Amino acid sequence: MTKRLDHPFGPLYDDNSRVLILGSFPSVKSREQNFFYGHPQNRFWKVIAAIFDQPVPQSIEEKKQLILGSGLALWDSIASCEITGSSDSSIRNAQANDIGIILDSCDIERIYCNGRKSHELYRKYIEPRTGREAVCLPSTSPANAQWTLEKLIEAWSAIRS
Questions:
Q1: Which of 18, 65, 93, 112 is deepest in the core (most CB within 10 A)?
Q2: What domains sit in the chain, N to C, each tagged with a CATH number?
């Protein structure tokens, strides 16, 4: 069943954030947890932990420490949309998030999108306002089964350079 939903939580960043990672819109599990990448099969936390040679975080507090301690910021391209479950392909009538609150608060050097849908929406709605390009990285979603964890870690290592 398709529902119109508003993004349920705010961005994660601080003064030391230099790299912004944008997802599309929180999954059902993320909405339940009120935090990013909450589905246990999503490989985001394993990828970030491997890139920064840290243990995979378990609690939300550990996840926040990993992101902020690594100079990262997290947010999503979409502020509200019509969506069925967690399916990016079902997203319709999207309204973009205002990433200006992050860009105005810290020195973001690079922007990356977690998957094609986030990148597509970034290019359509956000890039024209910011004038800043974003790099599309392969989705860490379990739906992106053709990408192994090892291949994801290799591709996502770009966020460190």
A1: 112
A2: 2-156 (3.40.470.10)
